[in-house]
Description:
By secondary structure, chain A is mostly helical.
Amino acid sequence: MLSDEATSALVHRARRGEPAAFEALVRAYLRPTYAVALAIVGRPADAEDVAQDALVLAFERLDSCREPGRFAAWLLQIARNQAKNWLDRRKLRDVPADDGGAEPIDPAAQPDAGVERRGLLRALWALRPAEREVVLLHDLEGWTHGEIAAALGISEVHSRQHLFQARQRLRAALGAAAEGEA
Amino acid sequence: MTDDPLDLSELDPSRDRARWEARIAAVTSQALTRRQRRFSVGDQLVAWARPALAVAASLAIAAWGSAWAFGGNAPVAAQRTDPALELARWASSGELPATPQLLQLVGDAHAGH
């Protein structure tokens, strides 16, 4: 993850319309944005689309980012909102009108996902949203607890707790799935 | 129970390098285009509105200041009678204007043009 100073400098350059600064910010923050979107929408392909929309929207509103050094936190909040809106739209689209709207969304029900990937997605979806965000940002993106805490607006202690819980539950779920297959 | 990091590489969107690079290029291009379009319309209007308002405000203050400096008299144009209205008033009331009044009116009309 870029330092606050480096991010702030890139945001200022992007505000002046420098393409290189745009690309550097996209390179640095598209993956974490994807991770947060995935924690909410549950499907990797959808999460990529949501992450793209969130970044484009963020750049459009770049002047309203009051603390350029905290661009990540601001961007991830936009990503969360975009993902929740997307989820609402998907529920309306996927659920038949006479179903009462109670159909759960199965993120693992993707035709293109491999067996391991499907198992991982199913196990991930059984976690709480905050646990999903933390474990994806930590174990997939490699962020530190300090970076996660600052970006998600939680304490480092909570970040550690969420990660511990998430890993325990994921290992248990993946272990049970492996035993079931054997 | 171990607390080592989990292997989540199955969910890594950049595993397909070429696809990911294409995604980065698409986001960058879309973001740049949207921002440039926004800047070219909305922000330029805002950018021009501020100095224009400042100039207008300065002119208004200067006009008010000069009026005040010259004794608070109303502008000359406001003191002048509209010749057409004055003629219409004379015609409708049947009042005959005196020669100096007529000369004044003709002079005002001439000065007004």
